[in-house]
# Entry
Amino acid sequence: MTRSGEGPRVGILGGTLDPVHCGHVRAAVAVRDALGLSSVLLLPSHVPPHRPHAPEASPFHRFAMAALAVNGIARLQANDDELRNAGPTYTADTLDRLRSRGLSPSQIFFITGADAFAEIATWHRYPEVLDLATFVVISRPGHDLGRLRERLPSLASRMKNADDAAGSEGPSIVLLDVSTPDVSSTGIRERLRRGESIGGLVPPLVETHIYQHRLYSSLSRRPHTESRQRAIFRLKAEATRRKTMTADRLHGED
# Structure
């Protein structure tokens, strides 16, 4: 539940979301529930500074997919703040914008995976960025949260579990063990290029959007779509034939 007397508690889950997948949604819901957040915003980034290549899908499609992914899920929302700002997307700048709208660092919860947080020293405006929000670091398949203290000893004293973080003063680093599917946007794009199914890897509405707009491959289509279409044609033809036979019998022609 949302904790009273503290004002809104807003989670931020960013990234290229190219495409957004079930792991993103599962993580957002888990953090929302574990920390009693008022809302969690999914923010597709414009130009991620740590990626060598630009996102494959356009900003329009990535935001559309984020909106479809959270459709009907309580307290999850898609947000286009980062897409409306030209140039590289830096976490510190995003957090500054939220603070300029009246949110304090203790009300902002930036969600990131253990794999990404392990490289925090390379982030823009480090270590200042850690004072701009509470960082919620979630487990990822193949990345043990327990090893973060060893890998980042200078930050170990700031790392807490969800229960201990409740009484912390000021921003902290919350380690949250979350069971998320072993899925990645890169893997989804590769499956689409090979013509393989992505069912269960992305929310159903996102899957429909990808196939409808042929994203990530000029030949992208649902597997077995053509055979399904032939089956539908046969069913329609059979229904028409039966209607004709019924009409003939009614007119005494049978």
